[in-house]
Amino acid sequence: MVSDPARTFKSMDEYYNYTRTFSGNYFRGRILGSDEGEAEITLVFNLGDYRYEICRGMFEPDELRRLTIKEYHRDLAVLETDGLSRSERNRAYIEYFVRHSNVSTFEEFAFLQHFVFSFDEQRKTLFWNQAIMERVLYRTFGIEPDMAKQADLLRREIEKRASDVRNRQWEATRLRRRINEIQSKVQSVPGAQETYDSLITTHELLSEQFDEETKLLNEIEASVKDANLKLAEHSMKETALRDEYALFFERSFNHRPSIAEHPLIIQTIHDKACGLCGNQEAYAIDTVLRKSKEKICPICDSEVNPEPQTAEDIKRLEDIDRSLSQIKQAIRDVLHLIKGLNEEESKLRQKWVSTKTQLDEFNQKNNTTLDALRRVLNEGGLSTSLTIYAEQLASLEKEKNDAYSQREVLRNQLQTIQKSLEKSYVDVEKDFVKKFADLAHQFLGMPLTVQLDANNSDGPKLIVSVRGSTRREQQQLSESQRFFLDIALRMALTQHMSDPSSLGGMFIDTPEGSLDIAYEKRAGDMLAMFAKSGHQIFMTANLNSSQLLLALARSCGRQNMQLCRMTDWAELTTVQQEEESLFNEAYAVIEQAMDA
Amino acid sequence: MKIRINPVAAFDTLFIANQLQKKNGSFSIPELHIFGYLACLLWLYREQPIADWEYNFVGTELGAPFSQDMDTAANDFLEVSLFYRSHERLQITDLGIQKLINYEKFTLNKKRTEYLYAACSSTLALSVGMVCTALSNEPELKRSNATPASRLLLEELARSQLYDQFSILHTAFYGRSDDLRLPAVTWLSALYSSSMSELA
After folding, report:
1. Secondary structure element (H or E) that encloses residue A77, with its range
2. Distance (Å, rounded) from C-alpha B57 to C-alpha B9?
3. Which of A101, A164, B8, B55 has its CA 20 to 30 A from that of A121?
């Protein structure tokens, strides 16, 4: 599957379906028309205890030409696919793959493969792509295996309901315009005067109720305002008192102590050795004791007037403390009052909104009728068709409100699974953060960490901190730091998700492009660290002076690294053919590094 | 520029120093932070708002709590002879005790003394070293130890694990004594046992 770089991610299912179709045409023009039927790719891989071999035509995303699944250790086929059609074979592959890999759906696997296990030329980062990050977090840290799928579905449904609300609103506006248009076509009805009187009475009752509630609401709003003002006044006083308290408190430490209270004298008496010359004779200590009680400085012979903390200072502190206690009580009282007022205001507002809605609905439903009735009562003609439109409008309003309520219910459901995610993340945070920090430190060479930010309205996300300062925005890191921290995150996620008996790997496409020279070696060391912990990396790299490949080769050695020369089978340009010796030299240097 | 002293943290520092000296003869600056943090946790146990504790703690990479305000106070006290160094440890002077007696009367401090006292009293049942070991297994400090950077302790996200443990304690001590020392010692003993079994 090849993804469309211009496509915005919406959900795992949508991404899979779109990308599969996109992939079906991707190679058209890149492969000669006469070769299209022959072009196919075969992939052999291990998945837990099973070895898979699949062969797919380059233009057949929904079919498989061959499929073999064997038990790895016993070389025993677990599925016969010769009798199956190509699309049946593809369905069988998906079914077995999901069962053996423990992903909840094949769509989820495609998502993980593209956004976590691969870092390709599109350079899409997880840290700064909220929609993708959210799904990855649920998949990696969720308690239930299908949590990412649940979150994915809920997000999609929430967006759909929001769209429904907007659409119904638009429809309602259109209908209201239509009602206005047909006013002129109103026909006469019997009993116009009775209908008119009944409507007017209802309107008057609703209006009176609305006016009364508005008055009460205004009064309580004024009380809340007054109480808040009182709170601000008390808080200001409290702040001033606290400042004064802190000032006097600090002043109480700033007085010059008596000679006997001086740190040097206290230390001398405790250690039984003069703090200045170190003399430990008894007479020396006696002299220090004697002199410390005098009012003459033993060093400069000046008269010493110690400034003991005066009783006034303590008294002042006591006074401030008392005032602080009183003001705190006053603040508590006001807060209590505000709480009560807010509760009352909330109840009143609910009633007021309900009455206002009734009045608005009444006006929307009946204004046209009332106008028409007035005209009829004056002119003798009225149309009944307005009722039908009014009913349609009411139905639309109901649908809009339903969609709104459904959206809120879905949001609450999402919030519940988010809480569960937060809890499970905290449980494994220690191990996961260490994995990430070790890898990323290998690259950046400075302390860094990640933290879960659960207060984000778009869902939970991981925030990276470097040297204790958080980097929420992309521009707070250089391009190479951004990409390699993201690769470190993917590696840590892969390590965390992997079954210990079948470690996951990563696909990395020409990562050296973004690096400046200072980081090339470190990047190679980071990749080697991941590879040496048993996780495979399938990486393409340009042949140039980059230190990345050399560092990787030196660190992994021949036993942990396999070099494949793409120049052996790729079609070289004329320029590349002329400079083939340069390729050979570059290969030789890498081979030497692997043996070093 | 000299950092302004936080009166509440300064009082806590003096109070804890005096208690530790009474119980153990001396104290160290890291111990002041540990027992200050323990008192703050007991404050949370009683469901008091964290903001009312009036100063913060940071979890260091070593898994120990650290309060800048307490540290400033302790260092100031050394300069003005409320504390003095005795070999590798510290002692409170008579002047320091006199100051503490003055400040203990203030209503601003009265409410805190119950928590500070309960925290320090845990050393009657457990040694200071055991309290340190136990506290390093407290969920927040354990998290801090596990990640390679200092972090602010007791932020909202992380408090849920702590509240889970406190809820068990609340259930266990429901309807029994109001003495905070009981849940403090029980909780610390459980954390200590957990540390020991992890080491084993």
Report:
1. strand A76-77
2. 11
3. A101
Residue A543, amino acid: L
Contact B126, B134 (CB under 8 A): yes
Residue B170 in contact with residue B152, Cβ under 8 Å? Answer: no
Out of B7, B85, B161, whose CB is closest to A426?
Answer: B161
CA atoms of A212 and B160, how far apart (whole Å): 46
Residues 6+ apart with CB under 8 A from A364: A176, A390, A393
- Which residues, 6+ apart, have CB-to-CB distance to B198 below 8 Å? B137
CB contact under 8 A, B108 and A252: no
Q: Give the domain range for residue A277.
A: 205-373
Which of A235, A244, A248, A250 has the highest number of chain B CBs within 10 A, making it the mutation to test binding with B? A250
Interface membership of A493 toward B (CB under 8 Å): no
Chain A positions in Cβ-Cβ contact with residue B106 (cut-off 8 Å): 317-318, 321
Nearest Cα of chain A lies from the Cα of B133 at a distance, in angstroms, of: 18
Beta bridge partners of B27: B90
User: Does the structure show a pLDDT above 80 at B191?
Assistant: yes
What ipTM was predicted for this assembly?
A: 0.77
Residue A430 to chain B, least CA–CA distance (Å): 5
∠ CA A477-A481-A482, rounded to 5°: 70
Test B149 with A314 for CB contact under 8 angstroms: no
Whether A36 and A71 share a structural domain = yes
pTM of the predicted model as reported, rounded to 2 decimal places: 0.55
Tokens of A521: 């070696």
Mutate to test the interface with A, among B12, B14, B84, B165 (most CBs of A within 10 A): B84
What are the pLDDT digits (tens) for B13-40?
999 999 999 998 999 999 999 999 999 9
| Selection from A217-226, A347-356, B12-21, B140-149 with the highest mean pLDDT | B12-21
How many domains, chain A?
A: 3
Residue A330 contacts B where some CB pair is shorter than 8 Å: no
Determine, yes or no, domain membership for B58. yes
- In A435-502 the beta strands, taken as DSSP E runs, fall at 448-453, 461-466, 469-471
Is position A102 within any domain?
yes
